[in-house]
Amino acid sequence: MRKKLFLLPALLLNFWVSSMYAQSEQPNILFIAVDDFRSEIDPETKAFIQTPNLDRLAAQAYTFNHHYVQVPTCGASRFALLTGMRPSVSGHLSNSAIADNMIGKPEEERPESFVHHLRRNDYYTVGIGKMSHSADGYWYGYTEPVSEQREMPHSWNELLFDYGKWGTGWNAFFGYADGSNRQGMNRQVKPYEKGEVEDEGYPDGLTAGLAVDKIKELKDKDQPFFMGVGFFKPHLPFTAPQKYWDMYERDEIPLSPVSHIPEHVNLKSLHGSGEFNGYHLNDEEAGLDHAVSDEYARKLRHAYFASISYSDALIGKVLDELERLGLAENTIVVVWGDHGWHLGDQLVWGKHTLFEQALKSTLMIKVPGMEGNAAVNTVVETVDIYPTLMELSDIEPAYPTDGESLMPLLREPAQGSNELAYSYFRRGATVRNARYRLTKYFREEEPLIELFDHVNDPYESENIAESHPEIVEELMPLLQKEYNGFYQQ
């Protein structure tokens, strides 16, 4: 387990939580999951992206500037979120991790997810959109009809999705404004689209509408609610109504500060942007042997930023309804990105690496009675969210998680830290502390060890493991302590 630098005495913390809600009912929870929502590491780009609603939320919330996911792929990252556990077998790195471990299993004493545990503790749970890996909460293939098999069979009182003109969740996930989708078009599509439609012209707009309507119903329930809302964008394809594209001047969009292969890094640590290149009407193909043109890089970054601004507007609609109904005063709000995304960084367009851009994602938490525009620079992990929500809900966890509650940081955001975050993928394991990232790969291709200094090299452009063996020696026991050996099984 990671070392805690600051920890409230249990009695004091329990008193604070109980007194926090002494004059009101148990808190509701609104959990908003956003697919492929990276956390910008470049201050120039971060300032450039237009997210007025998230900025408004940040004025009342805790924004975790160094939040890292356990696995840089959708299903596996969400499995770690929902269970509060780091991967312990290779199957936990798969997009099917949730389905493989939950579908067909009888309800057991140990809950399948924190949503399940909330439900068993009198929360009314509603899932809308992509909260697990499947686009609508039901398990079926990309080209198959909608199934009745829930991916998380014991977690939800209600699962909702508006399929609109797309017909299935996966068609909607890869959908375009005319109702077509990537698989139906045999991938003869572009990875972006500027739609001449209103917000409801894409699936996420329908998801926001469902969420707004459901909040109105939940207001009158005699029990607290957990509502999970999963937005697709900015996942590929980068599709958004034109008005969000119009928020940006393309010529002003900054390019990646590290659009090259890092020094002393094997290409096996990266990948050739296969998911991105799977959109066969791409203007240019990406690859590790060349960078796309500056013009196309700006177009793609423009599309990604527009998709983020679109999701921001939809998040704003949900938050506005929460406030309009008077529920914001007793509702915890979490906004979480399931992993990051390389926007040409290290020549990669996509996730699926153990580099900062793929592992660092957005995390914001607003707690009633603790509002206050706080930036938290401590290194934290996705698995920390589970125990945090349990503590905020005053519910005893059903089992010890790999994560640790973030409550101490919510009380003292400015506390210094030497905390650690662990991630796994591409036959490698990595640990991130306040200054360094150390990665070890279990493969034939060398170098097997990578070390990046985030004080002198925040974009991970040079592996310094060979020139700083003393730092590797210091950090390696920390990595080995949490590595479960599943690459060698």
- Morphology: globular
Sketch the major β-sheet: 8 strands, mixed
Helical percent range? Answer: 25-40%
Low-confidence stretches: 1-24
> Count of DSSP helices?
15
Structural class of the helices, strands and pairings?
A: alpha/beta
- What distance separates the N and C termini? 23 Å
Average pLDDT, all residues: 93
For the biggest β-sheet, the strand order reads: 5-4-7-1-9-12-2-13
How many extended strands? 18
What is Rg? 21 Å
Sheet-strand content, in percent, reads 15-25%
Please provide a written account of the structure.
A hairpin with a 7-residue loop joins strand 17 (436-441) and strand 18. The radius of gyration is 21 Å and the shape is globular. The protein is 28% helix and 16% strand. It has 15 helices and 18 strands. By secondary structure, the chain is α/β, with parallel strands linked by helices. The protein has helices spanning 10-20, 43-48, 52-58, 74-83, 97-102, 114-120, 169-173, 203-218, 242-245, 274-277, 294-324, 356-359, 385-392, 407-411, 469-482, and strands spanning 28-34, 62-64, 67-68, 124-129, 158-160, 192-195, 225-231, 238-241, 331-337, 342-343, 349-350, 363-366, 374-376, 380-381, 421-425, 428-432, 436-441, 449-453. The strands form five sheets. An eight-stranded mixed beta sheet has the order 5-4-7-1-9-12-2-13, sandwiched between helices. A four-stranded antiparallel beta sheet has the order 15-16-17-18, covered by helices on one side. Helix 8 packs parallel to helix 11 (294-324). The model is unreliable at 1-24 (pLDDT under 50).
The gist of it:
By secondary structure, this protein is an alpha/beta fold. The protein contains 15 helices and 18 strands. Helix content is 28%, strand content 16%.
